[in-house]
Task: structure prediction
Amino acid sequence: MQRWLFFFCKMGKKSPVLCIGEEQPKNCFTELQVLKGHFDIVRFLVQIDDFRCASAGDDGLVLVWNVETGERLQELRGHSQQITAITTITCKNEVTLNTSLITASSDRSLSLWDPDTGNRVQTISDLHSSVKCLLVLERLCVWLSGGEELCVWNRDFQLQCQRPNHSDTGITALIELPKNYIAAAMDKKIMIYSLTVSADSSLSVAEIRCLSDHQDQIRALINVNDGLFASGSHMGELILWNATEWNLLAYEHILWEESQDYNQTEIRMGAPKPSEMSIQHLTTNGNLILAAVGSGLYVYSVQTRSVVAYRKVAHDSNVLHTMLLSDCELMSCSEDGSVRMWEIQDLPLPAEPASSGFFGMWSFGRSNKQSGPPSKKVIDIPNIRMLELTGDLIGHSGAVQMFVSFTEKGLVTCSADHLLILWKNGERQSRLRSLALFQKLEERGGL
Amino acid sequence: MIGSPDVVAFAKEDEYGQTSPDPWPLPEEFSVPLYPLADSNPWAKTSYAKFTKDFILISEFSEQVGPQPLLTIPDDPKVCGTFDLNYFSLRIMSVDYQASFVGHPPGTGYPRLSFVEDSRVVLGDSKEGAFAYVHHLTLYDLEARGFVRPFCMAYVAADEKKIMLQFQELSLRFSQASECLKAGNRRAFAKELQRKLRDLEYTHSVLQREEGLQREAGPQSMYSAHAVEKANELANVEKSIFEHRDLLKQISSYHRRPRRDPHAVTCQKCVDECLSECEELLNKYAKIAYPCGYSEKAGKGEDGQGHPRGQGEDDDDDEEEEGVKRKLSYTPQLIKAKSAKCFDKRLKTLQELCDKTFYEATVALLKETERSFRGDLCYLYTRRLDKALQRKQRVTAFLFEEDLSEDDEDELGTLRPFCAVNHAVDNYVLLNPPPIVLTPEPHELDALERPEHLDPASETSVTQESELGLGESHLESSPSDQTLETQESSEETKGSFSSDKSGVGLAEMQQGLVSMKSEAPDPDPDSDLTPDPNHNLERESSSEEMETTAGEDEGETGGHQTPVSLLEVVSELEANREEECEGVSGSELLAPIDTACCMAQEGFLYEASAPEAVPRLCQNSHLQPSQTLVVNQEPQALLPLQDDYTVGSPCSESPVTGLELPSGLLGDAVSRTSAEDGSDCTMSASTGSDQTASPLGYGAVVTLRQRKKAGQGALRFVRQYPFAIQALWCLLSGRTLVVLGADEGRVRRLVAALALFVPAPGKCGERVQAWLSCPFTLTDLQRWKLIGLQRVASPLGSSMLYSLSRYSRYISILDADQTTLRCPPYRGQLLTNIADHRTYIRRGSTYFLHLQSTLCHLAAKAFLFTFTHHLHLPVSATEGPEVVESRRRCFLQEQLGLGEEDSQILLYLSQLITQQYLQPNGSSAAAPSFSFNYTTSILYKI
Result:
């Protein structure tokens, strides 16, 4: 036992992976609830409203949870195979806001669910191919499904129009652009479609442009703000696009480079494997773009077009999902089963952090795609900051696929170990419990 | 002398008159008298008792042999030692203040069942050094004199004070037992009546048929002696049917009677069941036993067929009623005019008198009573205090105390009926009592019938036919009958009957007496004691006792001579009855008993019991509220009767030796162990921990014995390991402790010892996992607060180590092999007194008690903390959570004097209390939450 303890303690020092230890004063998640119900990997979490969320995964089940109590509210059964995409769709009835769930599954069906009753309101089966992504356009009261073809549906699940696809991989991601344009990621290209509503209120989809600046498969596609969207590829390219004119604003190729003063005894391959640079996930709050690159994290400032902070080895394994809590706080989860919380801190010294790796990057503007100021060399920027680990959540025994934050109500994580964990602030919970206790005491009129 | 505190105290009192009332008076239950037994040595009293410890004695006043002990609880001869049970039975039975009025009071028609309340007496025999709480009760027996059998249950102890002080509770417990016995007895009695009524009915039908035959044979012989005899006999049977129906009514009206006994609480469901059962029976027999109806039908049958038991009639009935009445599998028997002698008749045993279930339940109840009264008065008193306290702490008791079983509520004085048939369980057997199946013996009637009638089915069909026939013809007359019934039941206590019936009833009453008397001397071949008690009993109960008979001997001769012999007997009896009818008034009941048929012994017995007859009579006539009489005097010299008991009693089939009689089958082992328990318990009364005596509800649950043993283990742990205090802190502050080791026994022992410190371990220790040999997950950590983990040197082991290191922030690891502990540092003071490795406590049970008191103290603090509003919630709207937080910290640190780590214990306990309070059953749809905190661990070594 001593040996392994020793090993464990040493691990923190020797391994490149961070080990924060057990003292985490900034970590407020001191209570957890394990939510059981799934039978297979849980891949998706969707927030329905401010206290409910839905989880879906490879078992084809969709479960609706009350985040405040940890109760399972509904069990939506219907899909026979794994769920490939899930999203919420909000209908504004006269008074009420009605949120429903749309799910897509490998059994080539699409379903609309009412999370209040657990009813399957609509369903479409026998599609040509399984749907890989969903996009709801609230403005037009339609929603789109992307797979091998792009389909546009109205709220009643009637197909408005569709557009076959020539790519092998099909559409993997869809985002909405201004002026009824839509960007779809297909393998190495980004297709821009325009959605036009004709006089008789019928819809049509037209292919407008194909953006093919990525050298590798596009893994992530997000809207940054009204004028920008970003995409990330498997080999670590991060491209910032103009959302209206669809031209390239910035191109960053993230390369983790071996640092010289890094432990020499460790044998590494000369060039990093592409998977180590793959951009798994992109997230943004408008000012910053957070990219999950391999097992590292990369924070990019939209204004300055420069890197703000980075950490090459943030997790033991690939980072699967990230979130920016604020301009200086972020969170990531990984295949190693942990969720980590980070803080972007100013470096204590102007000296470069030499501990965990060297950041190398070329950034260059492409002349043929004109306009947009060429991005600066980030290495030169002195005000680079540091990602400091402030806490980690260990509970899952499999890869943490995704998490959803309910701010002060807690954090829900889902994992390959079939579980969801609800992480909460213990102090808040105990306060709530005390409140309930005294309420009950009052109702009963004493003990 | 002057300075001695006593004197000062008295002087002060004198000076100021009365002292000012104590502003903080102790609650009633805490005020222990300082010098309770100033005058005497508390152990002196028990010294000359001939028995070693208290026991319960059940005795009977047998009408054959007088008072005799039936059974003792515990059923161990050692307990009674040289104590003379026979003599003591005589003593206790001789103070029966129950009203046992038997027979019919003037003005009533039928023999009355006496509804007597139990009586409670405390009786002392200082010569024997025995004192007893004596509870008399009366059970019904159709065959017994006056239908009653007096019994008594006595709690015999050497300590008079114990009995006197525990009187209320003893009375309560014994009342429950008595009610249970009586409930079972009523059931059995009703069943017996049912059988009897069937038999009578059958006899009646046979007689009628025979009478009709005679009438047919020649109208000139209408007035022949034979015919008159026949008619008399028939009338007799009819009366007897009426009588028995009336008895059935009475027994079913039992529950409507207002109870005078405040302790007599019965299970309402049982009552309802029994009532409905009786009603059902009554309805049934109201139809069947309507003699006129039957006779008409029978007459018709005979008219039509010309032969009383014509083939055609039977066939018809077979066809008609087969489906309907198939279920009646009981074969009725002719009632024989044999008159057994008093002493040949085998009286039913207590088991037979009561339903088996009820008897067993009663014995179990008494056993539990015996168990709960073990130990001396002081011990009982402390235990009661303990329980009363625990009951008041329901909110926190779940933390470290075992929860009280439900029965303990009784001790509070709440009258909770004891139900023999646990009514939570659906008990259909008792709801619909199983049909009484008697082996259809080749009846003599069958012998004289044609061969095809040999099968029992055809025989039953006879009764069936009669039942149905009666049912039909009864229809028009039933309303009146019903009204009569209700009248009776309402006016029962007054004993008023419709006048037309009363005359007959009186006569019939006498007949009943005669019947008992007359059957006594007749050596009954049936009643000698066939080894199978069930069959024997059934047959006896159904066929004995009544004077009409279908003689077995006639069966062989065949033909229709049966009535002849029958009539002879009956006429004899008739004459007898008439005599008595003239001579004896209904109220002087005891007189006819002293007749020739009673042997000298019997006579003596009645003499002996004669003094009681008077109070019985008067008590019954006024139905006094039951009062508890305390007779505490030396016994008068009584005739030595023991020899008679043991030798006498012709019904030696039942082992009357008293002690061996009862529950030998299952009782032995149990009672023996429990006896040991008891002695242990009395011995270690100082070690208190009492909870041995909370008897029910601990099946596979952690028993006190285990806990005491664990106390030893815990003491050893504390003395052996310098880091014990840290381990205890982990457990108490809710951090899961993993005991890692290769040796299963060692790990299990450690876990068992440490389980004492797990707050809210659950009833069966659900929060503790003694031995786990696979890697654990987060949910396991959530479920278990103490885990024994196997250390294995294999790939599995490495994955286990991985899970250990992965979840290391949630757990503390105690390595049993290398004696190390990895856990957050603890620097508090709260636990030093229970985890002092230099402790002077040497005994495990002492340590256990010490521990209990400390934990109790903790629980009290946690309670205070949990339910203090301002420590958790803002007092005003302007206050933020920080203010509350600082106030809480201030409370914990300054008012309770707890450091950071000690506060964690309290916070955890408080959290448990809150959860328990919000969800008392622990069941909620939501997953349980698991709290932890992020602190570094350090490794402790020896």
